[in-house]
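go over this chain:
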Amino acid sequence: MRIWVSGKEKTCLALTREDKPSVDRQALEIIGLTPEEIALVELFFGRPTPAGVADSVRYAIWALAYLPKTSCGQITPKSYYAAAWPHGTNKIAHWFHAAQRAQDREGGDEPRLLAVLRKILAWCTEYEKEHPFREEYLAKPAKRKSGKRARRTRHSGPVEVVTEPAPEPVEVQVVNQQLALL
């Protein structure tokens, strides 16, 4: 199988290492990506984006972090919204549009990842029409088990800093049993 990449994507591959997390391949198959598109996503999924990587590629890679995951062999509304909408908005769309704007500024050859993201976003749009967002789909933050909580101090106005001279040193003598108290 041959995977075609743009010059910008080739630069990204040259600047980064191979050890990266694996993508949920079954989810990509459900979305309807071709084997070549899945291989392209696997090539870039979780890859770091150091200096020197074009912003259009950088943002496209960041969009891949929000791909939906499968649950029991399928993409459920809860698994979809938990992955793609972690904060109440579609992060795939957010980073895709950022990548498009960066591509418009940069010019040159368009990263192949943008074509794959267009296909993923078209699928997301259809999925969201079939399964409208509900608040219960988002993951609720776990409750803390510890009884200790940080307390916030409230100030009632501007804080005034007052400097005072240091107190005179005092000599203290500790004898026998008093030493155990310290």
